[in-house]
Amino acid sequence: MKILVAVKRVVDYAVKIRVKPDKTGVDTQNVKMSMNPFCEIALEEALRIKEAGFAKEVVAVSIGPSQCVDTLRTGLAMGADRGIHVEASSSFLPLTIAKILKSLADVENPGLIFLGKQAIDDDCNQTGQMVAALLGWPQATFASKVVLDKDKQSATVDREVDGGLETLSVDLPAVITTDLRLNQPRYATLPNIMKAKSKPIKKMTLEDLKVDIKSDIEIVEVTEPPKRKSGVIVSSVDELIDKLKNEAHVV
Amino acid sequence: MMMIHRWRRSGEFVRSACKSLSSLRPEHNSMSPSVSGFVNRYESKGKTFQSNAWNDHNRELDLGRNLGMMQQYKSFGSSSASKVQRNPLFSSLEPKDVSYFKEILGDKHVIEDEERLETANTDWMHKYRGSSKLMLLPKNTEEVSQILKYCDSRSLAVVPQGGNTGLVGGSVPVFDEVIINVGLMNEVLSFDEVSGVLVCEAGCILENLATFLDTKGFVMPLDLGAKGSCHIGGNVSTNAGGLRLIRYGSLHGTVLGLEAVTANGNVLDMLGTLRKDNTGYDLKHLFIGSEGSLGIVTKVSILTQPKMSSVNLAFIACKDFLSCQKLLVEAKRNLGEILSAFEFLDNNSMDLVLNHLDGVRNPVSSSENFYILIETTGSGETYDREKLEAFLLKSLEQGLVSDGVIAQDINQASSFWRIREGITEALQKAGACYKYDLSLPVEEIYNIVNDLRGRLGKIHITALSPNNFKTEDCNQIMHMVQVTWQMLWDMVTLETLLGLIEPYVYEWTSKHRGSISAEHGLGVMKANEIFYSKSPETVALMVSIKKLLDPKGILNPYKVLPHSFFSP
Question: What is the ipTM of this complex?
């Protein structure tokens, strides 16, 4: 079985985000970019499944500008067997990405597609669901535990829901999106970084995949969240009550 | 606050332990019985339990003050039991002095409030404590000058104070010296975005300067754990080293000029902003690292560096110490222009961190004898990364490195740093700890550890680890910990334990031409130990300089130089 893992290049989790002055998006110039943490978890899970003997190959795919190759190299250094870079100059919304992944799945025929449950830059949490729908495959989102059954060709997935844990059984092929507590991703070791250098990264274009990239959504404006106002020290109980009544309107 | 709680908890144990300790050695009796009783306990305890002894420490010091000023305030210090006595030539504070200070500074900036004095009298590790009754908060150089002029004429001893984050008792009074805190002098005076020269007052907090520079796209040439409280004036006065020394050099290089006030109130304007200025003796260097014993630094001009955006970090495992040394040489040769940190820890330190801190894992899968952190800082993300990878892969092929990982994002990088920076915290949790801040030639660094292990092995030293393995002057801070209290009591008295360490460590360091204080300074803790690192002729010249600039010796007395030179 082959596992396809989508990895997204995003602004590093630890970087303080700055919104561009013209409000068209987030500033990514001279900003540290890394693999989306949820994608890292997805890749780690795929690698563990391969190491347990349930899969033969793990393929990492990234969609975006040429620097996405760095993200794929990270994936290869973690242990993915090969990479696919779908070149695209602009960033896409989930539906376009899902369409690209669908046509890739048609070519690659994976038994499982792993994705992070969401990317930390746009927080959409839609791509996995859309890919499953386009492919007509079962989906298990927010996975916190994944167990494969080779004989039955199915996966048992625990998912974290508001009320507790929900356990699903899905037939393969399936789409699984990963939550934070699924695993702790490995580091890229020197021997693996060395091996990664000889692993292939295949370049593909949108034309190759015959995907229509027109978007139905237009981003109107990106703004920073309102700044937190500093607190005030009141000088008397009367003043406090007055503020609670007339400013906060809570009493 | 959390730290204090921890101390208190362990204090419970220490108290009961000390009772048995005092009964162990009742024969020692050099002073009046009532005094010696606690001084003895106190000394032996202080040396062994270090900062765990906080509660007792307080109580006994109060007692000590009531009994007169006979006792040694250096409760955690070295074995050469040097009793410092208050210099009788110094005057005591009188009401007229206080009213004079109020006249020049205003009531608000003359502090007699006991709570505030309590904080100012105590160093942050609670190792040293003075009994000053007065703290002055000057707002400008002119006021510092007036204060010193008056104190000099009245023979009132003073202690200059900044953020009070020193580790050798240099920033707190030993007895009743008047505290001069420059915290209100905290203005940035100018910043040149072309040359990167920052001119500011001495009381600026390092972190505030760093934040200010960050908005301009620059960084301070030094960074310390204490950056949130330490003052730039104190950094300069103590020639603080810190994390960026390997990259930007010491403050003797980055400080371009300063303004200082000498004991008689003279203001020395050496506030140049030029990198080249060979006109006569470069006197500013006298005030860098002299720990406030020659003058009070009031303004500083310092060369700052453009901020680099690309930072990479690798965590490397090495089999033996020789490989670590070779790796250092190779790193300097191959990564020269982007190398920003080369830090070292051994497997004892690693175990300590893994056992005592939550959420830490060993980045490399197999356990090795030594670990090294290599950080690069540069301007080109892809270029720097390729360079670091190529270097490490070559080292792996050559067998210098046995395993290693490269951080793929900032989160991973912080988890690697967490291991290195967590050593101090893990030591606190492990037990009592001795620290020796030594500088040694690089090839000798680990030999002292092995020698000491052989010497102390039988008494269950759980960690004996050098870290801060830096290039050039190879600064080493050595930590030792013993955890197994019971074993300790059975096998060796505390006195014997310290006797095994000191003066052995100092003698060893001296023999190998190392420095007994790499970056912490001498303060009151190591003032008498200066001869281990400096020749008698050199120390004699230092004493002459001190006497020339401060004839009455009022500036930060009992520190840096052996007090015997100045006592009548």
Answer: 0.84
- Cα nearest neighbour of B307 on chain A: A30
Distances (CA, A) of B196 to A221, B206, B216: 37, 16, 10
- For residue A97, tell me if it sits in a domain: yes
Radius of gyration of chain B measured on its C-alpha atoms = 24
Residues of chain B with CATH 3.30.70.2190: 310-512
Query: Nearest-CA distance from B294 to chain A in Å?
Result: 43
Q: Which two tokens stand for residue B221?
A: 């040439």
pTM: predicted TM-score of the whole model, two decimal places: 0.74
For strands A139-149 and A174-178, give the pairing.
Answer: parallel
What secondary structure, in 3-state letters, does A180-217 show?
CCCCCCCCEEHHHHHHHCCCCEEEECHHHHCCCCCCCC
| pLDDT score, position B74 | 31
Please count the residues of chain A. Answer: 251
Phi, psi for residue B318 in degrees, rounded to 5: -130, 145
Calculate the alpha carbon distances from B219 to B162, B206, B209, B210, B211 in Å. Answer: 21, 11, 9, 6, 9
Tokens for B491, please give them. 């096998």
**Number of compact structural domains in chain A:** 1
CATH class of B188-306: alpha beta
Q: Residue A58 in contact with residue A81, Cβ under 8 Å?
A: yes
- Cross-chain Cβ contact B403/A189 below 8 Å: yes
Give B97-102 contacts, CB < 8 A, sequence gap 24+.
B97/B134, B97/B150, B97/B154, B97/B156, B98/B134, B100/B150, B101/B134, B101/B136, B101/B147, B101/B150
For A43-89, the pLDDT digits (tens) are 999 999 999 999 999 999 999 999 999 999 999 999 999 999 999 88
How many angstroms separate the CA of residue B393 from the nearest CA in chain A?
A: 7
Per residue in A169-227, pLDDT (tens digit) is: 999 999 999 999 999 999 999 999 999 999 999 999 998 888 888 777 888 999 988 88
The answer to whether the CB atoms of A193 and B408 lie below 8 A apart is: no
Residue A232 domain-assigned (yes or no): no
Domain at A182, CATH number:
3.40.50.620
- Strands A201-204, A188-189: pairing is unpaired
Between A and B, how many residue pairs show a Cβ–Cβ distance under 8 A? 61
Question: Is A244 domain-assigned?
Answer: no
Token duo for residue B380: 């080109």
Closest residue of chain A to B312, computed from CA coordinates: A32
User: Topology of B95-181 in CATH?
Assistant: 3.30.43
Domain span including residue A169? 2-225
CATH class of the B310-512 domain in this structure: alpha beta
Mutate to test the interface with A, among B214, B409, B410, B414 (most CBs of A within 10 A): B409
Q: What is the mean pLDDT of residues B318-322?
A: 90
Q: Which residue in this structure is represented by tokens 């050039």?
A: B472
Quote the pLDDT of residue B260.
97
Would A113 be classed as within a structural domain? yes
Taking each helix axis from N to C end, the angle separating B494-501 and B445-456, rounded to the nearest 10 degrees, works out to 150
- CA distances to A203, B13, B130, B228, B314 from B45, in Å: 69, 12, 19, 31, 41
Please report residues of B whose CB lies closer than 8 A to that of A198.
none
CATH code 3.30.465.10 region(s) in chain B: 188-306
Residues from chain B contacting residue A32 (CB–CB below 8 Å):
309-311, 381, 409-410
Sort out which chain B residues have CB atoms less than 8 A from A71's CB and list them: none
